[in-house]
Amino acid sequence: MKKKPKPLLQSGWILEGFPENQEQAWMLQSSGIFPRHVVMLYAPDTVLIERSGGKRLDPVTQEVFHTTFDWPSDPLVQQRLVKPEDLSEQEVSKKLLEYHRNFPEIFHIYQKVLKSINADQPSVDVLSQVLAFVQSRHRSAAPFTPRVLFFGPPGSGKSLQAALIAQKYDVVNICCGQLLKEAVADNTKLGELVKPYIDSGCPVPDNLVLRLLTERLSALDCLTNGWVLSGFPRDVGQGEQLQKAQINPNRVFFFNLPQESIMERLSQRRTDPVTGERYHTTFRPAPTPEIQARLRQNPKDEEENIKKRLDIYYSNVKALEDFYEEAFYVNADQDPYVIFEFIESCIIKPLPCKNVF
């Protein structure tokens, strides 16, 4: 999915009729799209079927009217209205059956931000309840300001879990690599110093990374809401520099995943150069042979390059585990929401000595 344009980020948005199932909901979250409020309108099936029977479509403007609730005043419009072909009682019943089958999975994903509202009442009352809900602010269940640090090999799901934590607790999601790129794109003073290293593909010096992180983590939103950080530190030396800068996480997680699972996740990723859409040869194959033929692989996802990245990670991880001795250990080779529930439980409960999951 394409990056959200700034007007939507500034003004907000309303999405209707999507996602329709669990897979689509996960796709939204993987793309970094997290609604703060989800409204589920419900009514008895008999009422919904009856309402559907009264819908009429203007074939000229594609505007939808209703014989009881929203009849047009213009006689010309009245004369050209037609009944949509897909709104027979049989078709509506099939759609309702599909909806009832998929809704429990969607409810599970969005249950912390979802409110059910009875739609079998005057529309003005429905609107009033919806407005009251979307204007409310969710209270975090976290008993403290979370400062969370994620470690894990490439492909272990750190980004998804960081996004889920950020959504649930309204903390700031900081990926070190992305932070560096944003500094360059924004033409900040630090960004100008970082740019030559990004352009050449060379590692950015620790002192520049630390200055950028210290500046970001000292911002009001991080101090007030907390943060979740991934991509730094990569070794104990960087961890010690974080300590000296008084950047101390209160929860640390190490993601563990078999190397064969990592290779399967990363080496089979493909991108459509025309649309920018991402696919996976096993988990999300291209829908047509035409799209399949034009897919390209990012060089970093070639097996040789994946192995190099893994070698760098594994050469440092043992020392990092010793450095952060009170860390939690996560089996990342399972359902993302099982992983999230474990991480969440570690965040909201008092810190134990050591835990393995």
From TrEMBL:
The family this protein is said to belong to: Belongs to the adenylate kinase family.
Q: What is this protein called?
A: Nucleoside-diphosphate kinase
A GO molecular function assigned to this protein is: AMP kinase activity
Q: Which InterPro entries match?
A: Adenylat/UMP-CMP_kin (IPR000850), ADK_active_lid_dom_sf (IPR036193), P-loop_NTPase (IPR027417)
Give one Pfam family.
Answer: ADK
Q: Enumerate the PANTHER family for this protein.
A: NUCLEOTIDE KINASE
Q: Which organism is it from?
A: Zosterops borbonicus
Q: Which SUPFAM superfamilies match?
A: Microbial and mitochondrial ADK, insert 'zinc finger' domain (SSF57774), P-loop containing nucleoside triphosphate hydrolases (SSF52540)
Q: Does the keyword Transferase apply?
A: yes
The alphabetized UniProt keywords are: Kinase, Nucleotide-binding, Transferase
